[in-house]
Write a sequence for this structure.
């Protein structure tokens, strides 16, 4: 979908989830709060949760409307979040190397970002990634849906803390998903 299509969905009140991803809550609790990056953050359900837990959060999304909603929600809660409008597909946001203890990439697949995400995590830090898989009647090779086993293959050289493929575990998503939590070696 285009950024304008996402803006239309947000204007219509769609995709404005409040609860953070259970994977983000579960695995972030095991880390000492530091600096987190939430890629394709949408209106910021994970960013808000992390900031409430003491993380310094950089949140990035291509939708100006999503970032506006996130900023308003953060203001209402008295939170400071570095929320940025940037089109990830156009390379408008650069992930700094070794800058984050946690990177979240929930329900967004851009294969060209994975190597940059891996470089952006400090030794001992983690990446929480959730992407859609194709439905049974869809092509297995699509730009926005991972093939089975593809997500874990990107992190074969990392410690896999969690891996799941199948029916989405979040009611707000209907398509099958691949979930992965991986820890960068070292430290």
């Amino acid at each position: 979908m285009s950024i304008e299509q996402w803006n239309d969905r947000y204007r219509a009140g769609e995709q404005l989830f409040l609860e953070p991803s259970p994977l983000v809550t579960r695995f972030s609790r095991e880390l000492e709060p530091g600096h987190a990056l939430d890629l394709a953050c949408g209106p910021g359900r994970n960013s808000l949760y992390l900031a409430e837990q003491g993380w310094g959060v950089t949140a990035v999304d291509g939708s100006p409307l999503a970032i506006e909603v996130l900023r308003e929600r953060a203001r209402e809660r008295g939170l400071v979040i570095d929320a940025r409008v940037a089109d990830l597909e156009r390379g408008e946001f650069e992930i700094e190397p070794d800058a984050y203890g946690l990177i979240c990439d929930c329900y967004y697949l851009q294969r060209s970002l994975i190597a940059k995400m891996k470089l952006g995590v400090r030794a001992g830090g983690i990446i929480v990634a959730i992407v859609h898989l194709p439905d049974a009647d869809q092509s297995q090779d699509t730009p926005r849906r991972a093939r089975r086993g593809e997500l874990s293959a990107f992190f074969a050289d990392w410690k896999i803390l969690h891996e799941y493929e199948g029916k989405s575990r979040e009611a707000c998503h209907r398509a099958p998903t691949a979930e992965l939590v991986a820890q960068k070696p070292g430290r």
